[in-house]
């Protein structure tokens, strides 16, 4: 039993060290902040025009999703990526990238994504130059919501899970 615990602890330490040094293949990946893997955004961050923002909206009615979570990678979906939490206005700031990434890949966490994608496929990506130049709104298959996109903003549409969609999920496992 002690051997199993030591092996698991070693694997966690190795994974953390690999994530801190970047992804394999020479792609620079910024490290996850030391304090937490979740990055929350202050309410004043939504007005900052010099940073990239992810705006999480309910695809059915266009209301902001406060406390929503988005997983983000730069260029390739390798490593743990970033888990971004939205503020009360449904906005999360993207962390500064290392190097010159061409695109970001995003996947929503804890809600149903309103984009067409393969069920077990890689996360969908967006060109950072397009986001910086004019902003980008993702596809919305959950409703017909009109949005105004501003430069530096990526708008993602989600909806809450229905009761029957939750039936096929594995329950969370508490590891001592």
Keywords:
176 residues, alpha/beta, five-stranded mixed beta sheet, 2 helices, 10 strands
What's the helix and strand layout?
Elements: H1 2-21, E1 38-39, E2 53-58, E3 69-74, E4 82-85, E5 91-93, E6 103-109, E7 112-113, E8 124-127, H2 128-133, E9 136-137, E10 153-159
Parallel strand pairs: 1-4, 2-10, 9-10
Antiparallel strand pairs: 2-5, 3-4, 3-6, 6-8, 7-10
Average of the residue pLDDT scores: 75
Q: Helical residue percent?
A: 10-25%
Order of helices and strands: HEEEEEEEEHEE
Number of helices: 2
Q: pLDDT below 50 for ≥5 consecutive residues: which ranges?
A: 12-49
Could you describe the largest sheet, including whether it forms a barrel? 5 strands, mixed
User: What's the total number of strands?
Assistant: 10
**Looking at the structure, what is the overall shape?**
globular
Order of strands, widest sheet: 1-4-3-6-8
Q: Which class of secondary structure composition applies to the elements?
A: alpha/beta
Instruction: Tell me the span between the first and last alpha carbons.
Output: 13 Å
């Amino acid at each position: 039993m002690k051997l199993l615990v030591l092996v698991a602890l070693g694997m966690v330490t190795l994974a953390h060290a690999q994530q801190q040094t970047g992804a394999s293949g020479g792609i620079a990946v910024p490290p996850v902040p030391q304090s937490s893997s979740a990055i929350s955004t202050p309410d004043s961050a939504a007005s900052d025009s010099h940073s990239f923002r992810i705006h999480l909206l309910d695809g059915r009615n266009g209301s902001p999703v406060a406390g929503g979570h988005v997983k983000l990678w730069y260029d390739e979906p390798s490593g743990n990526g970033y888990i971004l939490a939205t503020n009360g206005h449904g906005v999360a700031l993207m962390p500064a990238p290392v190097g010159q990434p061409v695109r970001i890949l995003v996947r929503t966490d804890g809600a149903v994504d309103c984009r067409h994608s393969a069920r077990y496929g890689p996360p969908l990506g967006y060109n950072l130059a397009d986001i910086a130049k004019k902003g980008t709104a993702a596809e919305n298959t959950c409703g017909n919501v009109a949005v105004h996109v501003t430069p530096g903003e990526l708008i993602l549409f989600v909806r809450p899970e229905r009761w029957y969609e939750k039936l096929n999920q594995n329950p969370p496992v508490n590891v001592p």
